[in-house]
Every structure is written in structure tokens, then in C-alpha cells.
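Sample entry (208 residues):
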Amino acid sequence: MESTFYLPTFKGFYGSHFEDFDFYSEIDYINECRTEKGLKPLSLKYDDLEFDYKQYYIDISRSITDTVFNFLNENNFIKKIDFIEIQSPQYYNYSNDDILVSGVFTKKNIASIKKYVKENFKQFDIFIKENFNSRSGFYSFYSFYSDSASYWFEQMNNFELLNELEIQHILLFICDNEGFDLYDSLYNGFSDVPYCPNVTNLEELINR
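Predicted structure, serialized as C-alpha cells:
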């Protein structure tokens, strides 16, 4: 079964670790390359680097997608995840960026998901209420979801009918409940992190 959904654990670029590239690491990389070529290091400033932010966000989104996939796939919850696009709000007052992906679930994957939720049903019930209940300072547009975790479990019997939000939060529950940390996993070898390819004047700086 194939479905589109929003990537779980990713909370957006705005205000996150992923919002901007590591300027100092880029400069270190450039000067390491220069040293290998027998050239002197450059004293570079931020404005010396021409950066393709659009491509950076696409590249880091692909790496984030691969990182989440590796965790879920290793635990038999999904067969495949492919990056589709970044969806950004017009204003960041009330929402943040999402990564839209397509995922392939086998019958065994779906059975594993249902088994996990059933075995951790008490935690799942708490998770649903925390994410969908309105509370002081927060109005939920999806409060009907918080009435019963049993509703969610029943919906899993028709997994192919789940919408993007439902699949995202079921997988998010699994990730959170297992202590999966996206940032730590991304930067500790789960996938290749984009490094310098989006500095459009990289070769010029290395060979100057």
C-alpha cells in the first residue's frame, strides 16, 4: 500500500537546528581543501559565500527523510519513503514547514504498527490527548481526534483510508515512544548530511 503523508518528527525549519547552514564548518572545509592543494587558508566572512538556500533545504529534507526512514524501516514499520516536496506556510505565526513524502507499507508493516500501538495503548491514548486536546493558550482544530484512542486503532483496520495527518501521528507516536531523536540521529551516521554542495562559489574559493 502506498500513501502520502507528512514526515513524522520533523517540526519545520523556522527556529530549528536546520534553519541555516553551519558557516564555520563550510569555511573549515574550504580551507582544508586549500591546504591539501598547497594553498594558504583564506580569512573568509559570511558574505564571501554564495549560498543556494533553496537547494540546501531540499538536500537537508532528503537527508531528514532518509534518517526517519532508516529508523522506521529497521523496526519493520515501513518499506519505503520518498521525499516529495517541502510545504511552507505563508506566515509562520501558527505553523511551520512540513516535508511531504510518499510511503510504501506492506501487510507486515501494517501488522507491526497495529501490534505496537496495541501493546503501548496507554501511552498512545496519552499521546493522542496531548496532541489533539484544546487547552489554555491552544485551540485544536482536530479536537474530535482526542475523544478516543480506540477510534484511531479501529481506523487502522482500514489503513489505506488514513489521511496524511493520521499516518503522520501514528508514526510520530512510535518514534517518540521509542525515544527517536531526529537531530541526533541525522548527525550521528544514520544518513549523509549535505556538506558544502550548496555553496555555489565553492570551487572558486578553494582555488582562489
